[in-house]
Amino acid sequence: MSIKRFPTQLVHTLRTHNGPVNAVTFSSYPGTYVLTGSTDRAVHLSRAIPTNNTGTATETTSPIQRYEAHGYSVLDVAVAADNARFTSVGGDKQVFLWDVEQGGTIRRWSGHNARVEAVQFAGEDDSVVVSGSADTTIHLWDCKSNSHKPIQTLTEARDTVSSLHVHMATYSIASGSYDGRVRVYDIRMGRTTVDVLAHPVTSVRCSTDGNAVLVSTLDGRIRMLDRSDGKLLQAFGSESTKTDNSAGFTLGQSPLAYRNSELRIRSVFAKADAVVLSGSEAEKGSSDAEAAQAAVFAWDVLSGEVIAAVPAGEGVKAVSAVAWNEKGGCWAGGYSDGMFYFFLLLPVSRVIVSYSPIIIIITTGAVKIYR
Question: Is residue 20 part of a domain?
Fold first, then answer.
């Protein structure tokens, strides 16, 4: 399939939550399931593609399993490599470690003083959980210990820690903060490198080899930086894109433009780090409803050019979350139009990404799967 093809055939819709979905992640290889975290304070486990899928769109209203313990919105979810555990964080300032099969919590850590926005597994056999909070700290928790205190706390950030990515091959933790800094902690060497972006950072993601880091900021740009010296390798998001039917979207001659100035919108590498995928915000107060739409954009890493753009539809305020399943060739995107919040999952030959929350008043949540 050509790199420019961007399939959009709906095969599965998940309507299991009673509120907006703030986080979505595929289970670890082969990515058969999806975990979603919502403002309804629950985490749901659902099958990504129904076993009886016939190619026609189906809808599911009940998850396989519900995980309920949070007292406030769930803002992030991460899955262990063995698929036996996952961790979740949210507005109740707590970090939960769950047993997938038993449906209950294994650990509950309460060391943060504000909402927790990001969480990742780390360490050998995913024995450590890393959490980032609006209290400006990053905590490291020992999954094998009964201690309720973190084994390490990183305090360099001066504002909310909005995003984390653990890169175990280089024993490092990349973090993004609203203070406009990307900090990469080398755990073995005890060294921290800092790149100044001068705009609030909403997303960080290391490349597979660990040599580059992808950074989204609220100036409407996504930058790929060299981890060794902070050099700008490529920038995405400064352009508009015209209609190109081969890229899988049609909007007459109205341009779609990447925008990100207010909300936390995360971006990721995809398909052997060849593509960057991200959602975007709608333009406020525009008289051109088509051009003002939020959309999902895919860029070629080498050229920086848009290879696909999928409009979110009129009235959608933002596409804030995305998640990629390498084995299944699917991607997920979270859409919000002020009335409901949902996710799309589409297979593509060359792209994709990971998640984030939007705080708005909405009444239903859903996940849609496309092929």
Answer: yes
Query: Over 60: is that where the pLDDT of 37 sits?
Result: yes
How does DSSP classify residue 93?
A: S
Cα–Cα distance, 176 to 235 (Å, whole number): 17
pLDDT in tens, 185-236: 999 999 999 999 999 999 999 999 999 999 999 999 999 999 999 999 999 9
Q: Running DSSP on this structure, what letter comes out for residue 249?
A: B
Domain that holds residue 48: 10-370
Give the count of beta carbons closer than 10 Å to the beta carbon of residue 313.
Answer: 12
| Number of domains present in the structure of the chain | 1
The dihedrals phi and psi of 86, each to the nearest 5 degrees, come to -145, 165
Contact by Cβ (8 Å): 219, 229: no
Domain CATH number, residue 352: 2.130.10.10
Task: Decide which of 368 and 135 is more confident.
Answer: 135
Q: Which two tokens stand for residue 60?
A: 């599911």
Which residues lie closer than 8 Å to 205 by C-beta, 6 or more apart? 165, 174, 213, 214, 266, 267, 268, 269, 354
Rounded CA-CA distance 189/64 in Å is 43
- pTM comes to 0.85
Contact call for residues 79 and 86 (beta carbons, < 8 A): yes
- Specify whether the CB–CB gap between 38 and 16 falls below 8 A: no
- How far from 61 is each of 12, 14, 101, 366, 368, CA to CA, in Å? 11, 6, 20, 9, 12
Q: Is residue 1 part of a domain?
A: no
pLDDT tens-digit map of 74-121: 999 999 999 999 999 999 999 999 999 999 999 999 999 999 999 999
